[in-house]
Amino acid sequence: ASEIGGHASGVDIADYDACDKFAQQVLAEHGGVDVLVNNAGRSIRRSIDLSHDRFHDFERTMQLTYFAVVRLTVALMASLLERGGHVVNISSIGVLTNAPRFSAYVASKSALEAFSRCAASEFADRGITVNAILPGAVDTPMLRAGLGRGHAGHGDMQERLDNLARRTVSGKVGKPEEIAHAIYFLADSQQSSFMTGQALVVDGGATARLSTE
User: Fold this and answer.
1) pLDDT on residue 212
2) 132 vs 93, 163, 180, 198, CA distance in Å?
3) Do 13 and 56 form a contact (C-beta atoms < 8 A)?
4) DSSP H helical ranges for 31-67
5) Is the pLDDT assigned to residue 195 strictly greater than 80?
6) Per annotation, catalytic residue among 16, 66, 105, 184
7) 124-158 b/e with 16+ CB inside 10 Å = b?
8) Mean pLDDT of all residues in the chain?
9) Does the active-site annotation cover 105?
10) Residue 185 reports pLDDT greater than 90
11) CA dihedral (211, 181, 140, 117) positive or negative
């Protein structure tokens, strides 16, 4: 395996002008883009409510998790087309199931998965592949922060992670590198050359078993 070098830059992707400027900066510094991985998320727990504050939360989640991704993809599409590149969008297994009071997150990730299929269809004849990954529970700071709501018990963090793991067929919570391997597969022209417009579920088997059994 080869090492991949690079540098990190911070940008508020919910700021569309900042998205455009960031895309131009990347193109200027690197000459083009071969692979775009869109991995943005804002997981908030809110009931479906038409009050102003709740609607603002819903709107902000869509803005960050869906609209910003579309904006960045469009800004870099010319370079991706030139190079026959790949787009990988990180959605969620929430689009196949759901969770109480997570309508904003699930809706935004569902929109992203649908956008992946539409973009794949639109750009397939121009050498672009667009796929989505639907991760299950992965041990990230966002997941750990969400374990405070009690759905995985009230023990210490490891106990809560273990309780969550028992809900999957594999009996474990995913690691970020396991999602990274799936991203690499979809970003590699040889490994996934015959895949586009697909939703690749990487969830440890969380959706492989009926919740009633």
Assistant:
1) 53
2) 11, 27, 13, 6
3) no
4) 52-62
5) yes
6) 105
7) eeeebbbbbbbbbbbbbeebeebbeeeebeeeeee
8) 85
9) yes
10) yes
11) negative
